[in-house]
Design goal:
This protein is an alpha/beta fold. The chain has helices at about 80-90, 95-100, 105-110, 115-130, 150-165, 185-205, 220-235, 250-255, 270-280, 290-295, 300-305, 330-340, 345-350, 350-355, 385, and strands spanning about 5-15, 25-35, 35-45, 55-65, 70, 135-140, 170-175, 210-215, 240-245, 260-265, 285, 310-315, 375, 395-400. The longest helix has 18 residues, at about 185-205. The structure holds 3-[(4S)-2,5-dioxoimidazolidin-4-yl]propanoic acid (DI6) and fe (iii) ion (FE).
Length: about 400
C-alpha cells in the first residue's frame, strides 16, 4: 500500500512525546500520515477538518508506538561464538577468553573469510528477527574486519541491508574495536596504519554515519581513541564510545569532551562521568544483553543517570560474543528486571532516546513532522511490551507510511 494520505484510527497511541502523560499516551487517537511523514497525531475528537476526508484505516483498538530503534548492534559479522559460550561456562572470564586469542579476534577471522554476500546473507535473519518486533531503525557497526578491506566490506554490507529490507540503517565505523593478531602489542601502529586510513577510506565512500571505539584495557586506551576521534571531528562525523564496560578508564568523560552522541555499556561509570555526560548531552546507551551474557554483577549507575538527567537509551548490542540477542523486547525486559528501569523508561529507551543516541530528530516519537515509522501491538497497555519474556505481541509495522 502506498502512502498518499492515510488516517489511522481506532487506536491508542503511546506517542513517547513528553506531553505530561505517561508514555505520551493518547487513548482514542488518530494519526494522519502523508508522504511518509506523520502529518498530524492527537485525540480523534480534535482531528482538524483538513484530515476528515483522508482514507481511514482502523487499527482495531490496538496500541501504536513509534517504530522501535536498535541504536547499538554488531549485527553484520561472520561466524558465531558458540564454542566460546561453552568455554565461559567452563569457567573462563571474558578477559581470559580475549587474552587467549578468542573473543572478538576469533570473529575477525570468520568475518575476513566472508565475502560481501556472505555478510549480508548471514545478517538478514538476525535483522528479520528485529523487524518482526517492530524495529524500523537499526544501527550497524563495523569492527570485526580490523583491516582496511574487511572494515570497508562490513560497512558496505551494513548499507546494503537497507536496500534488502524496509528498515533505515545507520552505519558506525568501529575500527578501534580490538587489536588484530598481526598488530599484537602494537595498538598505536594499528590505529595509525589501519584504523585511521580505513576510516578515511570508508568516509570517502560515503559509508560512515558515526565513529565508535572500544575504550578498555583489552582494546584501546583513551589517548588512542582520542586520535581516532580527532579524525572523526576533522571529517565532521559524530562519535560514540564503548565506555566503562569492564573497568573505569574515563572513556565516558573522553566521549563527552568530543560531544559524543552516546557512551555505551557504562557499567563502571562513576558520578564524574555521569556529570560529564549530562553536560555534553551525551546519551547513556544501556546494554543489558551484554551484562546478562557476561554474568556481570556491576550494574550501570541508573540512579545517578536519572538524578543528573542523562537520557537512557537501550539496545540489543547484537553481537556474536557478549550479546547474541536479536530482541529489543527482551532487552526491555532485562533492563527492567536487572536494572530496575521502569517499563516507561525502557520504551523511551528504544524510541525517543534511541533516536537521540543516533543523532536523529525525525523518529522515535509519534508527532507531526516525524517519519511515519510505527509499530502496532496486540497489547492493552505499553507496560506489556517490557513485561513478557519471549513473547512477541507485534501485529504489524508501518515504515515510512507504508504498511
Ligand atoms: N563490547 C562488547 O560487548 C562487544 N564489543 C565491545 O566492544 C563484544 C564484541 C564481541 O565479543 O565480539
Ligand atoms: Fe557493542
Amino acid at each position: 500500500m502506498t502512502d498518499l494520505s492515510t488516517l489511522y484510527v481506532d487506536l491508542t497511541a503511546a506517542t513517547m512525546t513528553p506531553n505530561g502523560e505517561a508514555y505520551g499516551l493518547i487513548p482514542n487517537a488518530a494519526i494522519a500520515t502523508k508522504g511518509g511523514r506523520i502529518a498530524w497525531a492527537g485525540p480523534l475528537p480534535d482531528l482538524p477538518a483538513a484530515y476528515e476526508g483522508a482514507a481511514r484505516t482502523s487499527l482495531g483498538g490496538r496500541l501504536v508506538t513509534p517504530g522501535l530503534i536498535d541504536c547499538h548492534t554488531h549485527i553484520v559479522h561472520g561466524g558465531d561464538r558458540a564454542a566460546e559460550f561453552e568455554m565461559r561456562l567452563n569457567g573462563a572470564s571474558y578477559e581470559e577468553v580475549a587474552r587467549a586469542g578468542g573473543g572478538i579476534v576469533s570473529t575477525v577471522t570468520a568475518t575476513r573469510a566472508a565475502d560481501l554476500d556472505d555478510l549480508i546473507a548471514s545478517a538478514l535473519p538476525r535483522v528479520d528477527a528485529l523487524l518482526a518486533e517492530g524495529v524500523t531503525v537499526l544501527e550497524i557497526k563495523s569492527g570485526y574486519g580490523l583491516d582496511r578491506e574487511t572494515e570497508l566490506r562490513m560497512m558496505r554490507a551494513a548499507r546494503a541491508i537497507e536496500h534488502q529490507r524496509p528498515v533505515r540503517v545507520l552505519t558506525t565505523f568501529l575500527g578501534a574495536h580490538a587489536v588484530p593478531a598481526e598488530y599484537k602489542g602494537r595498538p598505536d601502529a594499528y590505529i595509525d596504519e589501519v584504523c585511521i586510513p580505513a576510516l578515511r577510506a570508508a568516509h570517502a565512500e560515503g559509508l560512515v554515519d558515526a565513529v565508535d571505539g572500544f575504550c578498555e584495557g583489552i582494546a584501546f586506551l583513551p589517548d588512542q581513541i582520542a586520535r581516532v576521534f580527532d579524525v572523526a571531528q576533522e571529517l565532521g562525523l559524530p562519535v560514540k564510545l564503548h565506555a566503562e564496560q569492564l573497568s573505569n578508564l574515563g572513556g565516558a568523560k573522553l566521549a563527552a569532551r568530543y560531544g559524543a552522541l552516546s557512551a555505551d555499556h557504562i557499567e563502571y561509570l562513576d558520578e564524574d562521568g555521569v556529570i560529564a555526560m549530562a553536560g555534553a548531552g551525551t546519551i547513556a546507551v544501556i546494554l543489558p544483553g551484554a551484562f546478562y551474557t557476561l554474568r556481570e554483577t556491576q550494574a550501570p549507575p541508573i540512579a545517578a543517570l536519572r538524578q543528573h538527567g542523562v537520557p537512557m537509551a537501550l539496545a540489543s548490542d547484537c553481537n556474536p560474543g557478549s550479546s547474541p540477542m536479536t530482541s529489543l523486547l527482551l532487552t526491555m525486559n532485562m533492563a527492567c528486571t536487572l536494572f530496575r528501569m521502569t517499563p516507561e523508561e525502557a520504551l523511551t529507551g528504544v524510541t525517543r532516546h534511541a533516536a537521540a543516541a543516533l543523532g536523529l530528530n525525525d523518529c522515535g516519537q509519534i508527532a507531526a513532522g516525524m517519519r511515519a515509522d510505527l509499530a502496532v501491538w496486540d497489547v492493552k497497555t505499553p507496560a506489556e511490551l517490557a513485561y513478557r519474556i519471549g513473547f512477541n505481541p507485534a501485529h504489524s509495522r508501518i515504515f515510512g507510511g507504508i504498511s
